[in-house]
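so my prof wants the structure for this chain in the C-alpha cells format not the other one, which i didnt know existed until like an hour ago. anyway here's the sequence
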Amino acid sequence: MSPDIVQLVKRVFENGGLVAGICHAGSLLVSADIVEGRQVTSYPSIRDDLAKAGAEWIDAPVVNSRGLVTSRRPTDLPFFMKEIIDFLSA
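here's what i got, hopefully its the right format
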C-alpha cells in the first residue's frame, strides 16, 4: 500500500532489474502495473486479480517471465530461490 514501495518496484522492473514476489506479493505487482502480458503465479486467492490486470496466471511452483519471478507459497521457496539465484548469476 506504500506509494514509495510501489514506485520502487515499478522503477526496478522498468530498468531491467529483478522483481520477485511470493504468495500475496502479486497484489503489489498489480499496483505497480507490471503484470500485463506476463506469466505469473501466486497464492490462488489473488489469481483473478492478476488475470484482470492482464497477467496469465499459471499454477506452478515458480514462474520467471523475463525477470518477473513469482511463486505461490512458502513450500515453493526452494524453486523460488533457485530461480532468483540463477537470474542473478547470469
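also thought this was worth mentioning. Residues 83 and 89 are 10 Å apart (CA to CA).
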